[in-house]
Amino acid sequence: MRIISGERRGHKFDGPEDKVTRPTSDMVRESIFNILFDRPEGRVVYDLFAGAGGLGLEALSRGGTHAVFVERDRRNAALIRRNVNTLKFNGRAGVLVADAYSWAKTFVPLDSEPVLVMLDPPYKDFDEKPAKILELVKSLVDRLPNDSTIVVESDRDHRDVILPEPDLWDIRRYGGTQVAIRDVVRESLEGETS
Description:
The protein has helices spanning about 25-35, 55-60, 75-85, 100-105, 125-130, 130-145, 160; strands at about 45-50, 65-70, 95, 115-120, 150-155, 170-175, 175-185. By secondary structure, the protein is of the alpha/beta class. It has one domain (about 25-185): 3-Layer(aba) Sandwich (Rossmann fold). The chain has a seven-stranded mixed beta sheet with strand order 3-2-1-4-5-7-6, with helices on both faces. The longest helix is centred in the C-terminal third of the chain and has 14 residues, at about 130-145. It is globular. Residues about 190-194 have low confidence and may be disordered.
C-alpha cells in the first residue's frame, strides 16, 4: 500500500496480513480525498474500523494535525502502530484498541474545532448490523463540532438504512464501493434568547 499525496506521497506502508481485513483501494482513497480537497488540513482525524490505517494515514499526509485510529483487532492495531512509525507520524497519531460502536457512544469532542471522521465498517456489518451503523453515524452527526466532515464507505447503496437524513449526503460510487460524505452544519443560534 502507498500514500497517494501530501508530505509522505509515494511512501509505502504495510497492508493487513489476514484475509478478513479489506483495506480501501488506492483508487477509492484517492477519489475520497479528491472530494475532501483541503478538509483534512489542520484537523484531528478519526479513522474508525481502521484496519491497516490507510484512510487516517492519508489524512495525516495531507495536513491532518493528529489521527486517532480505532481498531478492535489487536494485530491490526499493532500494524497501524508500525505504519505510523514507518511513515514517521510518531507524535501525531494514537491507536485505540476498541470496538468502534462502543467508542462512538462515549465520544465527546475535545473542543469546538471541526474534525474529520472516516468510517469503513466490515461490509458484512451492513447486512448484519445496519441499526448499529445507523446509531453510530447518527450519534456522530449529533455530537461533532460544526463544519466537521463524516465519510462512510460501504459496499453498495445503504443510504436509506444507515444514513440519517440521506438527502444531506454526497454519495458516489466507485466500482464495488460506495462513499457517502457529509459536512455537519448546525443551525445558527444567533438571535435566539434563552
